[in-house]
Amino acid sequence: MTTIQDDEIVVLAVHQHVYRWYVSTPDYWVLDDAAWAQSFRDAGYVMPDAGAGRFGMPLVDEKNAGEFLDHMSVFESDNDTLRRSHTVYGEIPTPSLIVNFDEREVHIGGVESPDFGAYLPPGWRVRYYDIRDSVPPHMRYWPD
User: The whole model's pTM is what?
Assistant: First the structure.
């Protein structure tokens, strides 16, 4: 059994009509890392260069999604692994985000920080709701 840590989220990424699960820290999924870092600098914090902690990619969008997801392969998961996983509280992990590179949108479900919707690439949109209904049936790892 795998334990999803408190500092990790479950993300469904869609790229070229292929659906893949990832379990990682949320920071990887702030698509416009440069804008996020600037917001910290504006608040008086010292920040490293944008993208420094994310494979040198300050902006992730539909144009470089393949490269980004190649780097993220170390965090890739699957339905069977997630089905056997639990949170540190013993619950089945709930998906936090759907990042759809094909449709240029992010669906935000069970995660509040960081504010993923505030740091999107140009032309992208955000949706806030329980995303479990948006996950295609073949990708659902939780019991109905």
Answer: 0.91
Residues facing residue 11 across a β-bridge: 22, 97
CB 124 within 8 Å of CB 35: no
Give the model confidence (pLDDT) of 106-139 as tens digits: 999 877 678 888 899 999 999 987 888 899 999 9
Using the 8-state DSSP alphabet, how is residue 59 labeled? B
Q: Summarize pLDDT for 5-34 with one digit per residue, the tens.
A: 989 999 999 999 999 999 999 999 999 988
**Measured at the alpha carbon of residue 71, what is the angle toward residues 34 and 113, in degrees to the nearest 5?**
45
**How big, in percent rounded to 5, are the helix, strand and coil portions of the chain?**
30, 25, 45
List 32's β-bridge partners, or say none.
59
Residues 6+ apart with CB under 8 A from 54: 27, 28, 33, 60
Closest to 68 (Cα-Cα) out of 79, 81, 59, 80: 59
11: left (phi over 0), alpha (psi -120 to 50) or beta: beta
